[in-house]
Amino acid sequence: MNMFVQLWKSLYSPKDIARFRFQGIGKTIGYVFLLTFLSILPMAYYLTTSFVEGIRSTSALLQNELPSFTIENGQLHSSAKEPIHIDQHGFTIIFDSTGQVTKEDVERFNNAIGLLKHEAVLVANHQPQYYSYSTFPDIKITDKDVHTFIETLQSLLPVFIPLSLLIIYLFASTSKFIGISILAFFGLILRSTLDKKLQYRHTWIMSAYAVTLSTVFFTVMEALQTVVPYAPFIHWFVSIAVLFLAMKEVPSAKPQNE
């Protein structure tokens, strides 16, 4: 059966998930990689567009709208007497050498770059990253140095972005395999409760398909940029429930005749 057909059936049919337990482990591993790939597409899109737009906006603003500055001894220095807040095409840039703005203030934005008193903050699709100036205590950095660095970074984007997405994909795949393996152990507990004749291999394969509904749901929410409260709890509850329903479709172990 085609993997995309399996994905579709796994969304609504515990009976088909139960049937998949007989297929080879290699095909199941391939399915997990496919499911993981589909699940990171929204994040990959938003991360890429946000990063590219952020680099372009920052480069233009450094030349036209931000004052000259230096980063020295772990601090940002400029002639600005108050924070500068700029919104451009859905991207926010905050420049603050006064120390009034905190990293938590920058984190509130969907996509933003904050050059703060003691650190730089990059927010892409609500995911913040921090870069402390104290990492370079003996180096003096000027706005011209930053502009040169951004131009270099722009030229490396065709390499940097695919490499970053590959790392994200590998990390997401590893997390997915670990989650499925844990869910399969829950399957062994359910096996005893339901009196089903299943091995760990079977519960692992069924678990790989049982996480489909939850994964697709959160992928859609990510595409809509909607935050779901208690997401980990919902994911595990739905996955265990689907696995339970699938295991109920497996014939019970026949009692041995005395």
TrEMBL record:
Keywords: Membrane, Transmembrane, Transmembrane helix
Keyword Transmembrane helix: yes
Presence of keyword Membrane: yes
Signal peptide: none
InterPro entries, alphabetized: DUF1189
Transmembrane segments: 29-47, 166-190, 202-221, 227-247
Source organism superkingdom: Bacteria
Official protein name in the record: DUF1189 domain-containing protein
